[in-house]
């Protein structure tokens, strides 16, 4: 609770900071607050966002750093303005997946990672591999506990400082703080690219089928030609969707059913599932389902009227599913059928 | 420094008593002392005040709104001496089981971790235990919700997290781990209920060459990082003194080039000695899983008859679409069947395990597979009713395309996933354990999947996809009663009797709902 109060105070101090002391005063405060435990320089070997500096100050407070709320506010402003991260942020999982790990986990600075790639290529790649997954000569850093617990080089930097033989023949202790920082971001980028949603997380090549066999299936066993035509509704379909999306679309053409990249429009014109309800006294009414369970059914008809019934044995409810043939095909396709169909549809530019 | 929110203490608090250990060995009637109601995992109650003849009169008794928590309400409450104990990610509550009044609320200040859900607490005497997303096991005093201690159950930096309900066996608080983003080993641990000291830890995957199961991995690096999270609450047979643990998928999850072999003991049911953590037997439900199916469904214990002889049995409806019945003393397979049609196995081996078809493992250009990653079933618990002899499971039939994205010879993490396809329907399957075939199937009109509970009143309680809490006739599957809660049932229902009134409790949305015959 005390820490929460502190953070709240820090936010207040930061946002209400109208009369900014000069840089010298800020640095003096920084040295006073932080210099009691370590050299201030050792804390600023990496650039961080305001939130990350705020989190770091919170950690220091938890570790016993002393200062007033105003002083901590000044330190935050100083670190953010002088050692802030203004570059591009690298990939981070989003949503629930983004919660994995600690809240204060390393955030990749993409520009630093790009610079780090050069250090990696010249000093590390021979032993640890292109993707940092290791070789016979060096360990897999993606499976390194140290790297996953590293924050902005605090552990990697300490390790490299001890002296680690590099491929150029030199020792890692000779790397500058900036090089360690860049290298650290590059390695974290390699770590994070193994996570779900990363830039490498997409189908590679789905065009492995035989277009001729796909056409034969389309016109034959698949019975696709009964509803679709390459010169009609499917004309130019391959220009509209990329191949993975095409694959998803014919497996499940419902709006949002076929996932992948590319494509546009279509959802509003998509065929709708409807219900036809026939009460014992008649007549039948067809409409868009609003509710359907074992107990009740409700629809909205084409005129926009709402209808609802309690389900009884003599109330007839029929589902009109325009996707039924596609659903049935899911149970019949071989993988060859699926790949051949993609190859065939890809010819419909 | 941990934030502690103690809302208020009522006079009823002083009547709060601890859990009498004898209740753990009795059918759940006035007490629901563990996640599944009792150690068996049957989620069956002998209560029959509410039954097929009168359930249509069951009505709302109370609602407890949690006012919204991250991860929703997936836990099954415990009920002890008239008080419900409940958890969600970073939260624990004590609630009057008769009225829904809150006795206390504890909030944990989180340092991170995936807040996908929390399955519930465990209670030992006067102490409550639950896991937090940021890898802690926390012990509270059940009388006032004050923290007694907390200990680390896993390493947050390695992307582990806590979601499963612990289970108490005598003086062991046994807790699993969650998390399959990184290639890290799964394990299950036993802690001293008094001080949280680690008593034993069993790793699902071998940690060095020569360990049992090591022969099913290509090398030490692969096995040490081979996954197998313990997402499910174990069950326990006091007579055999065996703890039944189901284990998660191997790592890397989808791209599997660097983990050739069966990958023991992932995707398995294992029987452990709860005093030592030593494995007694295993049965692998998904050898070399490549579809994120794992086997972390409930290993349900029941007494049955096989070829005219009484047997101690274990049933598992696995996420991969197969239903298994084992002799729970030995782990020997008795029944293997498909409870929904699947297409990923070439057949069944002599020992009862499905044989994966390599063509249906994830491919670079995609493989059309059923079940999909969500599984033929998932974590929501099934139920077994000894009066009907039926094993009820919430089931889905869905297809998707499994892709390998990471084509490296040494893939890491997931390296692929499934996409697209369609769900062809969800249902309750009532499986005859003797044959493995469904005696009845009730298909939901609008999908849906929830936990289940059955009772001696011949009722099966469940949730449908239209936000209804539903009671089915357990013998026939006929729908008998429902209440639309406005949002889907999100946990496994439970029941208890107090003052002659039987209550049925379920979670949906951000609230806990109690129904009764008032």
Explained architecture:
The complex is a heterodimer of chains A (349) and B (518). Chain A is an alpha+beta fold. Chain A is built from 14 helices and five strands. In chain A, strand 3 and strand 4 form a beta hairpin. In chain A, helix 1 (2-15) packs antiparallel against helix 3 (50-62) and helix 12 crosses helix 14 (335-345). Residues 1-20 and 258-267 of chain A have low confidence and may be disordered. Chain B is built from one helix and 36 strands. In chain B, strands 1-30-31-32-33 form a five-stranded mixed sheet, with no helix packed on it. Classes of the chains: A alpha+beta (349), B mainly beta (518).
* Tertiary shape of chain B: globular
The description of the largest β-sheet of chain B is: 5 strands, mixed
Low-pLDDT windows of residues of chain B: 1-14
Shape of chain A: elongated
Q: What are the low-pLDDT stretches of chain A, counting only 5+ consecutive residues below 50?
A: 1-20, 258-267
Q: Strand-residue fraction of chain B? A: 35-45%
In the sheet with the most strands of chain A, the strands line up as 4-3-2-1-5
What's the count of strands of chain A?
Answer: 5
Q: Helical stretch count of chain B?
A: 1
The count of helical stretches of chain A stands at 14
What do the pLDDT scores of chain A average to? Answer: 86
Features:
heterodimer, A: 349 residues, alpha+beta, five-stranded antiparallel sheet, 14 helices, elongated, disordered N terminus, B: 518 residues, mainly beta, five-stranded mixed sheet, 1 helix, 36 strands, 40% strand
Short description:
In chain A, 40% of the residues lie in helices and 8% in strands. Chain A has helices spanning 2-15, 23-34, 50-62, 69-83, 110-123, 125-128, 145-149, 154-161, 177-192, 211-219, 237-240, 243-251, 324-330, 335-345; strands spanning 274-278, 285-292, 296-301, 306-310, 316-320.
Topology:
The complex is a heterodimer of chains A (349) and B (518).
Chain A: H1 2-15, H2 23-34, H3 50-62, H4 69-83, H5 110-123, H6 125-128, H7 145-149, H8 154-161, H9 177-192, H10 211-219, H11 237-240, H12 243-251, E1 274-278, E2 285-292, E3 296-301, E4 306-310, E5 316-320, H13 324-330, H14 335-345
Chain B: E1 44-45, E2 59-65, E3 78-80, E4 83-88, E5 91-96, E6 102-107, E7 122-124, E8 127-131, E9 136-141, E10 147-152, E11 167-169, E12 172-176, E13 187-191, E14 198-203, H1 220-224, E15 235-237, E16 242-246, E17 268-272, E18 279-284, E19 300-306, E20 309-317, E21 322-327, E22 333-338, E23 345-348, E24 354-356, E25 367-369, E26 383-385, E27 390-404, E28 416-432, E29 437-443, E30 453-455, E31 459-463, E32 468-473, E33 479-484, E34 494-498, E35 501-508, E36 511-516
Parallel strand pairs in B: 1-30
Antiparallel strand pairs in B: 2-36, 3-4, 4-5, 5-6, 7-8, 8-9, 9-10, 11-12, 12-13, 13-14, 15-16, 16-17, 17-18, 19-20, 20-21, 21-22, 23-24, 25-27, 26-27, 27-28, 28-29, 30-31, 31-32, 32-33, 34-35, 35-36
